[in-house]
Specification:
Layout lengths: L2 H147 L3
């Protein structure tokens, strides 16, 4: 082969090799830059995720505290209401017992009044019988006297 052609091919080869080396360096530089950017973005994403985790955890803690406070308040109110219901039930029980005693007293009074009324009825009936008997005798006596006086 011709020396010019060999020189040309040698120069072309060196130039191509140089360009490939430059491109390799450029690709390596791009890789480093891309890797650096991904690392930076990964760091930012990790920070954001960490921040979001902290914020979410804080919000859940706040909600838990509010929920616990509401549950505590609800338990206190329920306990107070149940205590009030218990006290009301006790008062109602006492009133019911008092009413039972009063009803028993009234029932005994009614029974006594019925006995007195029955005795009074018997006395009145006996008196009416006595009066009726007296008036019959008087009427008979009067009737016989009137018949003696009247001529037939």
């Amino acid at each position: 082969m011709d020396k010019d052609l060999l020189d040309f091919l040698q120069a072309f080869r060196e130039e191509t090799s140089k360009r490939f080396d430059e491109m390799g360096q450029e690709v390596g530089s791009l890789r480093e830059e891309t890797s650096k950017r991904f690392d930076e973005m990964g760091q930012e994403v990790r920070q954001e995720v960490g921040s979001l985790r902290e914020e979410t955890s804080k919000r859940f803690d706040e909600m838990g505290q509010r929920f616990d406070a509401r549950i505590d308040t609800f338990q206190e109110e329920t306990t107070q209401r149940l205590d009030a219901v218990g006290a009301d039930a006790q008062r109602a029980h006492i009133l019911i017992e008092d009413l039972r005693d009063k009803v028993q007293t009234v029932a005994e009074g009614v029974a006594g009044a019925n006995e007195q009324l029955q005795k009074h009825r018997e006395e009145v009936s006996e008196r009416f019988d006595t009066l009726e008997s007296f008036y019959r005798r008087s009427f008979r006596a009067l009737n016989s006297r009137v018949q003696k006086l009247e001529p037939i």
